[in-house]
């Protein structure tokens, strides 16, 4: 379908809706996070149902990452769910973003534009959609617990390690398994939650980061492991800017891609939601009075992981490299905090946000 025919279809859809007096609500695209699936019970289906309850009659496209259209259409199929979850760990995200752009462009229900909701790592992936794929238009983007400046901590999870220990056996798999069982003492509560990690500036964590720093920007890992593609090393910003194939690229770290910037500032609203007890997304905050988590585009100061630079003091903002400052100056950049751990939704606040920005 050509861009002109797509625009004509969108215009016809809106015109018919006005004539009939039944203008449908703006559709919503949702992209889930790491280890999650698009549609299974107990996974994103709960969020999808809540959004449907809050916006009666809304069409929701919940992103499923399986490249097989027949499998993706069977949203509750076991094979689809396993592949969907697997691809939150093992995928080239530039290719995935383009696939999702193509799927959105081919969906007749989305031709008049849509709002978007990103969950955890799905946040930065949907921002990439907004920057790279302006047709059909993303109207407002709301992100929950996103990692817009990347992460600087190893968040271990068994599916990721199984990926290296199984079909991707070899030196990287052996190193990661050795690191986990020799350097990290995992508290049982964290292990059961699936998010054991290494926090803080300690000798053990520094050693761990030293090893991962040496691997994260290896081309094979960059093109294969999802989390490596938004790993941000503040101790070597030059390596990060040149080696990161995804997060540095969409943040215009090397050079300003005006196309990306122009598309992002076309958003009606960019809504960034953080969780005040988040221990999954690191760094967390600089102080209780100046929240500057990376979900709000704050990040560690270069070569100083004891200091976090707030979003509006960052190079990204000051130089307006992706249009963040422009959005802020136009009153289109909004910040909210939900109480609780990572992805523990406050449904009352969620309804307020949806009423303000999605209706």
Briefly characterize the structure.
The protein is α/β, with parallel strands linked by helices and 359 residues long. The chain has 17 helices and 8 strands. The longest helix is centred in the N-terminal third of the chain and has 18 residues, at 3-20.
Could you explain how this protein is built, in words?
The chain has about 350 residues and is of the alpha/beta class. The protein is built from 17 helices and eight strands. The strands form two sheets. The protein has a six-stranded parallel β-sheet with strand order 2-1-3-4-5-8, sandwiched between helices. Helix 7 crosses helix 8. The longest helix is centred in the first third of the chain and has 18 residues. The radius of gyration is 20 Å and the shape is globular. About 40% of the residues are buried.
What spatial form do the alpha-carbon principal axes imply? globular
The stretches of 5 or more residues where confidence is low (pLDDT under 50) are 17-21, 154-200, 285-294
Strand numbers in spatial order across the main sheet: 2-1-3-4-5-8
Summarize the helix and strand pattern as letters: HEHEHHHEHEHHHHHHHHEEEHHEH
Total strand segments? 8
Beta-strand proportion? 5-15%
Give the N-terminus to C-terminus distance in angstroms.
Answer: 28 Å
Query: What Rg do the Cα atoms give?
Result: 20 Å
Q: Sheet with the most strands? A: 6 strands, parallel
Task: Indicate the topology.
Elements lengths: L2 H18 L7 E4 L12 H11 L5 E3 L6 H5 L4 H9 L6 H14 L7 E6 L2 H11 L5 E7 L13 H8 L5 H13 L4 H6 L9 H14 L2 H4 L14 H7 L3 H4 L7 H7 L4 E7 L23 E3 L2 E6 L5 H4 L5 H6 L3 E6 L8 H11 L2
Parallel strand pairs: 1-2, 1-3, 3-4, 4-5, 5-8
Antiparallel strand pairs: 6-7
